[in-house]
Amino acid sequence: MPTMADVARTAGVSVATVSHVLNGTRPVLPHTRQAVLDAVDELGYTPNTLARSLVTARTRSIGLAVSAISNPYFTEILQGVEAGALEHGYSLLIADPHDDPEHERKVVQLLHERRVDGMIVAPSADPRELVAYLTRHEVPTVFLDRVVEGPGGVDGPRDAGAGTERRETPSGGPRRFDQVCAESARPMAELVTHLAGLGHRRIGLVAGLEGLSTTAERIAGYRQGLTASGLPYDPHLIVHGDSESAGAEVATAALLALATPPTALVTANNTMTIGTLRTLRERGLAIPDDLALCCFDDFAWADLFAPRLTAIAQPSREIGAEAVRLLLDRLAAPDRPTRTLRLPCAFVHRTSCGCAETGEYGRPAPRSQSSQSKGTVS
Question: Strand, helix or coil at 281?
Answer without folding.
Answer: helix
